[in-house]
Specification:
alpha+beta, 4-stranded antiparallel sheet, 13 strands, 20% helix
Length: 181
C-alpha cells in the first residue's frame, strides 16, 4: 500500500470539507475556498475530523492515483488554513523588484521594465531583493513563481538573474585566455 496514500488527513475545526458522489471536493477555510475534481475510482472516507483515501485495487495506475489524491487533498486543507509561499531572489547589478499597486515591476537588464500582474488568488510582496509569491493553491503559487523565474533565469558565469531562495547555481569558469606567446 502507498505510504503517502494511507496516511490520514486531519481536518482542523475551522475548515469545512464537502465530498459529493462524483468526487468533487470543496474545502472552505479562513483563507478562502478551493475545489478539485478527483478520480472516481478513489474512495474518500470521513470519520469526524479525519479523512482517509482508499483505492479499489493494486493496479499501477490506481496506486499512483492513491498517493496523488491524498497529497492534493492535504495541500487543499493546508492552503485554506495557512497558505503557501515561494520566495525568489533577484541578483545582479541594476536588477530590481518593486511593487506598484498590486503589480510587480522588475528591472532585469532589458531596455524596458517587466510588469507582472498577479493572477486571481495570488499576491506579491517585495522585501529588498526578495519576492514572495503567496496564495492558497500550492500548484498555482509554484507555477507563478516558476514563470517569474523564467523571465531571467540565473546564468552560470556571473550568477545574475532570478532564482528560488536557497537554489544553488552551478558556476562555470570564464574564458581561459590566450596561452603561450
Amino acid at each position: 500500500m502507498s505510504r503517502i496514500g494511507r496516511q490520514p488527513i486531519t481536518v482542523p475545526d475551522n475548515v469545512q470539507v464537502s465530498i459529493d458522489e462524483a468526487n468533487l471536493i470543496q474545502v472552505k477555510g479562513p483563507k478562502g475556498e478551493l475545489q478539485r475534481q478527483f478520480p472516481r475510482t478513489m474512495a474518500f472516507e470521513r470519520e469526524d475530523s479525519v479523512i482517509a483515501v482508499a483505492r479499489p485495487n493494486d493496479e499501477g495506475k490506481q496506486r499512483a492515483l492513491h498517493g496523488l489524491s491524498r497529497s492534493l487533498l492535504y495541500n487543499m486543507v493546508t492552503g485554506v488554513t495557512t497558505g503557501f509561499t515561494r520566495t525568489l531572489e533577484v541578483q545582479g547589478v541594476g536588477y530590481r523588484a518593486q511593487m506598484q499597486g498590486s503589480n510587480l515591476h522588475l528591472a532585469l537588464g532589458f531596455s524596458h521594465p517587466v510588469i507582472v500582474t498577479p493572477p486571481p488568488g495570488i499576491t506579491f510582496t517585495v522585501e529588498g531583493p526578495r519576492i514572495h509569491v503567496e496564495g492558497i493553491d500550492k500548484e498555482r503559487v509554484g507555477q507563478v513563481a516558476a514563470n517569474i523565474r523564467k523571465l531571467r533565469p540565473p546564468e552560470p558565469y556571473k550568477g545574475k538573474g532570478i532564482r528560488f531562495l536557497g537554489e544553488r547555481v552551478r558556476r562555470k569558469a570564464g574564458k581561459a585566455g590566450k596561452v603561450g606567446k
